[in-house]
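Predict the structure of Probable lipoprotein.
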Amino acid sequence: MKINSIKLITVILITLLLSSCVDDNFEVPTPSGNEENSELSIILGNIASEADWNLVTIADLKARFNSGDAPLLINENDVVKGYVVSSDRNGNFFQEIYIQDAAENPTTGIKVVLNLRNNYTKYNVGREVYIYLNGLYLGETNSRDGIITIGGKIDAADNNEVDVISENQLKDHIFRSAVTETIVPKTISVGEINDNAVGTFVRIENAFFPPALDGEPIVDPNEDFDTQRTLSSCSGAGFSNFILETSSFANFSSVKMQSQTGGFIDAVVTKDFRGDNFVLVINDIEDIKFEDTLCQPLTPFYSQDFESFGSTSDVEAAGWTNVNVNGGSTTFTLRNFGGNQFMQASAFRTGENPLEMWFVSPAINLDSNTDEELSFGTKTGFNNGAALSVLISTDFTGDVTTATWQTLNATLANGPSSGFQFDFTESGAIDLSSFSGDVYIAFKYLGGDGDVTTTFQIDNLTIVGN
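Done. Here is the predicted structure for Probable lipoprotein.
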């Protein structure tokens, strides 16, 4: 959606003069003839048999580029595979597609810019595509916007930006397989929208338009290009806001918003023009399903921010178990920085390898609540590997080695390798509704001096419910 206004106006005028309306009887396209299939077969054969041909992941590809750098020319026989998740059929995307690394539960995605109108007729949602990268560029269409992009050349107007893959380049670089998968939106919380999510198709549940937008069109009629609308989602004990960005050229731009009901929204994660904010972009107005009663925040019934403690021993006296299972002396410690207190673990300069330490909550009873959700924050410093995991037990009696533990699916901090990250990373809402009675939440650190020594900080443990 990030476009140069002059370029856009020129293309729109040409479109009006030379093209007819979009065919409403669209059918999923198949690869055109044997030539495209043969080319893809050759590429896949080279990957299987030639040492200098590589199938790379989207994550590995994105890791090669740092926001703000000059475009990177790829001069190796690398190929990346992905599944198309965006569509320009309704005018909300322009000269771009987004692909993610799996049809379901993707880990990341990437933007591809191409000089092709109505590209949904060739690269339909769910289509498996292979991109031969040799001769293409990795960069940003707007320098420092943080949206890592595959392009065909350096922009003539700005050497720090990439431009579209030309129609002539397309036939040599982007190949469709015969596979079209059903794209399953990945349900995430607003707090889990991050750089890894850019380019993926996600679902935000318990979402709604605020009353101030009731009756307003989804696109501001005074805007020439994009309109950003702030929506809300119930999140634990409160609300989280997120931005829906819609093009004035979308054929649903005049649809009125309503705030009486809520539900879910399925959309592609990207960023705004300057890269200041994450935004969601829908393919179709039908991607907004607000047909349910408005959600209500859950009520906190357990919280711990460690602010009331004066020392690590005070934390332990309050019922927290803090143990080193290797017999060493290193355990989680209470720390303070910038007026904020948290628990910290690190193997750095401990002289212990391996180092396994556990920090376990007191018993937390769930019987008086329903729909329980756990959340907390983590921060890392001098990250050189994953060391922390989060677990739950219903039979812990004081010995972590004899209890039954189940790993919880939480978003944990990851970076940087030098210094500390600025903000805590939200874990996301972790569903505890299948548990009952007393539960124990454990943070397990597994590392070793001279091995994985990442510093982890933990704060703001909260459990909410109805």
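Confidence is low (pLDDT under 50) at residues 1-25.
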